[in-house]
Amino acid sequence: MRQILVAGNWKMNLLGAAGSSLATALAAKYPISAVEILVCPPAPYLVSVHARTSGSAVRVGGQNLYFAPQGAFTGEVCGDMLKDVGCSSVLIGHSERRQFFGETDDLLAKKVVAGLQHGLQVVLCVGELLSERQSDQTEAVLKRQLSGLAQVSAEQMANVVIAYEPVWAIGTGVTASTEQAQQAHAFLRSELKTLYGEQVSAATRILYGGSVKADNALELLSQSDVDGALVGGASLKADSFISIIEAGIQAMSLRA
Ligand code: PGA
Q1: CA dihedral in degrees (126, 248, 7, 91; nearest 10)?
Q2: pLDDT, mean of each 10-residue run, the chain (256 residues)
Q3: How far apart are CA 7 and CA 161, in angstroms?
Q4: How many angstroms is it from 58 CA to the middle of ligand 1?
Q5: How far is the CA of 210 from the centre of ligand 1 (A)?
């Protein structure tokens, strides 16, 4: 059975004090948990958030990395550094990285390999634009974006999570319907089956992201191919993020 993962992507939000108090509240609430919990703060706060969550069920992840192991890459952070400050995961290919920073599938494939080589769990984000959905391109786009896995072996897939985030649903308050989410997730799982076979496809977690909130989380997480949530806005406050984690715990118990 796939364990539900609830991940918070803080993006470029929350200064040190606010992030620390959020991390402290989450760690206090979840010394242990039936679902996996991950928070991805901005890079300058990884150390402080990790200090406040270590020993709890809350793991810490980076929002991005650069694929080179070290060197003259001003402004970038490598996988070794993420590991060094206590990260166990990294988000790769978030749509904001693709849209605003020009990240291509080829570049992302290198980042995925780098993350795995450093022992990080890689959360590879995929998702179509509204125009692509409207022109019936969703599946073609998702298939193309899975090329981020081009150099990933079946064994390495144990450390890969896919996040389906339709771009039109991110930060807009518009959530994909449960049917739209389940349909896209089922398609991604069938593609994983083509790429890696039945066992890997059945074992890989596929998260949904895009305006996940306390009041829609349980319905989304109850879909058979939705194995967790990647949460932006609603992960910035302890009460709303905890409600989503609780929905995950409930959905997990319904799966058992
Ligand atoms: P949102 O963001 O929950 O604010 O829509 C999700 C994401 O971008 O990961």
Answers
A1: -30
A2: 97 98 98 98 98 98 98 98 98 98 98 98 98 97 98 98 97 92 98 98 98 97 98 98 98 92
A3: 11
A4: 19
A5: 5
Question: Residue 211 gets which letter from DSSP?
Answer: S
d(CA 108, CA 145): 9
Beta bridge partners of 231: 8
Indicate which atom in ligand 1 lies nearest the CA of residue 213: 3
137 C-beta neighbours (distance < 10 Å), count: 14
Strands 206-209 vs 160-164: parallel, antiparallel or unpaired: parallel
3-state secondary structure 149-205: HCCCCCCHHHHEEEEECCHHHCCCCCCCCHHHHHHHHHHHHHHHHHHHCHHHHHHCC
Cβ atoms of residues 114 and 90 within 8 Å: no
Mutation pick for ligand 1 pocket among 94, 126, 230 (CB with most ligand atoms within 8 Å)? 230
- Residue list, ligand 1 pocket, CB within 6 Å: 9, 165, 170-171, 209-212, 230-234
Q: Ramachandran region of residue 152, left (φ > 0), alpha (ψ -120 to 50) or beta?
A: beta
Q: Can you read off the two tokens belonging to residue 30?
A: 């979840």
Q: Please say whether the beta carbons of 65 and 114 come within 8 A.
A: yes
What is d(CA 67, CA 33) in angstroms, rounded to the nearest whole number?
Answer: 32
Q: Which domains does the chain have, with CATH numbers?
A: 5-255 (3.20.20.70)
pTM of the model: 0.97
